[in-house]
Write a structure and sequence with these properties.
The complex is a heterodimer of chains A (120) and B (106). Chain A is mainly beta and 120 residues long. In chain A, 0% of the residues lie in helices and 52% in strands. The mean pLDDT of chain A is 96. The N and C termini of chain B lie far apart (36 Å). The mean pLDDT of chain B is 97. In chain B, strands 2, 4, 5, 6, 9, 10 and 11 form a seven-stranded mixed β-sheet that branches. In chain B, strands 1-3-8-7 form a four-stranded antiparallel β-sheet, with no helix packed on it. Classes of the chains: A mainly beta (120), B mainly beta (106).
Chain lengths: 120, 106
């Protein structure tokens, strides 16, 4: 089955760190650009970061630049998001999402999402 | 940054109705626009990309149109499974989503 599954979410205090993982299966992970997208009730869907298949192209939303780092391990079909200096406003459901083809959206495969709560 | 504005925010309709949702971009995005459907507690699902191309497996009652700054998603013959929230997404300048349109049962 073609799928991506997120893990690593949870409760963290402001200023803390968390690392999200996304395990891919059923497709050639190393051929696809992968992304993180988050969703909050208040702000809706927000694209967070993108990483190309060969890691040559990396993009971040301004809201996370300098604090979050996206990476991947093609040998283990995994995508990661290292989140540092977390803020209350980073509280969201985080989705791992695959780009349909090439470098830019749309996103044709999404995980089930993982909740990250930043609170004291 | 490119802002995406959807209207209406909520739409009440009945099974069998034809409904349309509008998405406006703050600047021209050519046809770099996608539509997603999201059911409660689930991830978004890609319906349409490049403004009007139906994703594989998506029913033909869904259609998309537009270019530049104004786009439309139409659903002809609303089915029970279609009551959900719909989002547009521009990808002319990486990615920005609209705020969503909830299609609810009248």
């Amino acid at each position: 089955e073609v799928q991506v599954v997120e893990s690593g979410g949870g409760l963290v205090k402001p200023g803390g760190s968390l690392r999200l993982s996304c395990a891919a299966s059923g497709f050639t992970f190393s051929s696809y650009t992968m992304n993180w997208v988050r969703q909050t009730p208040g702000k809706g869907l927000e694209w967070v970061s993108s990483l190309s298949s060969s890691t040559n192209y990396i993009y971040y939303a301004d809201s996370v630049k300098g604090r979050f780092t996206i990476s991947r391990d093609n040998a283990n079909n995994s995508l990661y998001l290292q989140m540092n200096s977390l803020r209350v406003e980073d509280t969201a459901v985080y989705y791992c999402a695959r780009v349909r083809g090439g470098l830019r959206p749309p996103f044709d495969l999404w995980g089930q999402g993982i909740l990250v709560t930043v609170s004291s | 940054d490119i802002q995406m504005t959807q209207s209406p925010s909520t739409l009440s309709a009945s099974v069998g109705d034809r409904v349309t949702i509008t998405c406006r971009a703050s600047q021209s995005i050519s046809d770099w626009l996608a539509w997603y459907q999201q059911r409660p507690g689930k991830a978004p699902k890609l319906l349409i990309y490049k403004a009007s191309i139906l994703e594989s497996g998506v029913p033909s009652r869904f259609s998309g149109s537009g270019s530049g700054t104004e786009f439309t998603l139409a659903i002809s013959g609303l089915q029970p499974d279609d009551f959900a929230t719909y989002y547009c997404q521009q990808y002319n300048s990486y990615a920005t989503f609209g705020q969503g349109t909830k299609v609810e049962i009248k």
